[in-house]
Amino acid sequence: MIVPVALDYCYGTEARAEAFIRFGKPLSRAELGATRPEVHHRLETELEATLEALSHDVAHRRLDQFKTLAKGRAGMGGLYAVLQRIVAMMKGQEYEPRHARR
């Protein structure tokens, strides 16, 4: 069994990058083909399709298609974060360090 795996490492709305992973359709040995060129072509086609689907979802921020495995800190920190807190307090709003709500 072979499973195509696509990775996308990009910067979204936060200062730190996000990593996205998409697993493609599992392929049995019989589905790959008989000759080396057939196997190569099938693997290339399946991996390309998996990467295209991943890239589309990431570019359109379709985050409901993904499961979060680990989260880092949000926001910028430092003086900028202090100013954000003051502005939120003056507006009577809750401080939200993320640049975009998900």
TrEMBL record:
Its name, as the record gives it, is: Uncharacterized protein
Taxonomy, top ranks, is: Bacteria, Pseudomonadati, Pseudomonadota, Alphaproteobacteria, Acetobacterales
